Amino acid sequence: MRKTIVVIGSGAAGLFCADGLVARGDADVILLEAGDDPGTPPPDWMRRDLATPADVDWGHVDADTGRPLLRGRVTGGCTSTNSAAALRGQPWCFDEWGIEGWRWNDVAPYFRALETDAQFGDRPAHGNSGPIPITRLSFGPVDTAFADWAGEQGHAWVEDQNAPGALGVGHWPTNTIDGAVRYGVHEALLPRLRQYLRAGTTAQRLLFDGTRCVGVETSTGVIDADHVVVCAGSVETPALLLRSGIGPAADLAAAGVPLVHDAPGVGANLQDHPWTVLQVRAADPAAPGLRPVNGVLLRYEILADDRVEVHLYPHQAKPYLPGEDAAEVFLGLGLMRAVSRGSVRLAADGSTEVHLNHLGDPQDAKAFDLLLDDAQAALDALGDVLIEPENPWWRDRERLPDHLESYGHLVGTCRMGTDPGAVVDPALAVVGVTGLSVADASIMPVSPRANTMLASMMIGLRGAALVLPE
Ligand SMILES: Cc1cc2nc3c(=O)[nH]c(=O)nc-3n(C[C@H](O)[C@H](O)[C@H](O)COP(=O)(O)OP(=O)(O)OC[C@H]3O[C@@H](n4cnc5c(N)ncnc54)[C@H](O)[C@@H]3O)c2cc1C
């Protein structure tokens, strides 16, 4: 009899996983998405504005700071609300996972398969027939001035930031096309997946017969399944497992959730890239408007220990804040190698708590302080291009905690591994139960030193080959 596989979540990983499972052809696929499906072509806000409308966001906050934590709740998931920076991690990011089958040489073919790189598609490191278009936007005057400054500081010019091992200053790779901000899954994947999609359907609980997952209780009814693949993202995936009885036994007992499997790792190991923006103005109001969003990126190692990589880049403000002054520019600062760990927890009242714990470790605080020094040096040198406001907060480092944000790169809450604490094994099967896999950003043991969309897509694509219903 043909098996039924239910994929939960139509985000970066879920779409690629469902697409791969459909292509495999050996099971019926049902793709659940809690949010709506706005259709193809996607609405104008999704193509052109970087602000996330409240009705397509999960509404989470960091429990410790109360600050909003954006997570897309719509077909495409966070790829529909993100900044379309399409940057790969470094080879050593995957090698250091130390997991057979997930080293750089193993995962690189999947990165190639998912892209069509407009500039470098014919090179061995790249692909030219995948669904995600990757391109680099021409520089505006602010980008050029910033790139010149970075070169004067000794940073190498990098022709291709997605070449393995790239470090230095160069064009942001983006999934941008035709002047639109985001492009990819809504145009290439969703049209062929809609026949399997059930949008507006929230998975509320996984159903078990003993320790065997046999289906999903959803907002619209029960769905029987031979296998369930959870691709709900780094907050909702652990939250769903916890609600379903897979997680730390004490937390589940406190919330009155019957235990299916005691798995202390569910929701632990949360990683993000701490991020902040320095809001400045372009001296020439027309300068930033010459390109839509991502122009120049400087990525470099600010602490030699543990290869602590950072991002520094000027970013046009307007697409984030439609209606705002076009001369506004953000100088973006991202710590791409954080050692602090947060968590996603089930509170006693059954709600989901996210603790980001940004800069909780002194090494992260030190690295971020050095990054602020470098950002200040850039602003001092570029005074005729970028104008600082009166008394900017960043001249008083005590004020940093009020301005620290998430780069949106949450990973690690259902960590893959071969040790007893791992939540999923290297084939993405949830340890301790059967009929259940996880394939999304949450399985990454350690975050790559890059924006996490491409790595999440890679996991979905690779997951489609690994998930085997019994
Ligand atoms: C504001 C923001 C900006 C970002 N910018 C970038 C960027 O520029 N470049 C980059 O590389 N990365 C960026 N990221 C990160 C990147 O988008 C994510 O890492 C990636 O999308 C994660 O993929 P995922 O499949 O794990 O989760 P998601 O893409 O979040 O997909 C999860 C999906 O599951 C659905 N879902 C969740 N729970 C349920 C449920 N119970 N039932 C049914 N469906 C459910 C969600 O609605 C969602 O559609 C950004 C993220 C954010 C939030």
From TrEMBL:
Keywords recorded for this protein, A-Z: FAD, Flavoprotein
Cofactor: FAD
Start and end residues of each Glucose-methanol-choline oxidoreductase N-terminal domain: 233-247
Alphabetical list of InterPro entries matching this protein: FAD/NAD-bd_sf, GMC_OxRdtase, GMC_OxRdtase_N, GMC_OxRtase_C
Family indicated by similarity: Belongs to the GMC oxidoreductase family.
Name of the featured protein: Glucose-methanol-choline oxidoreductase
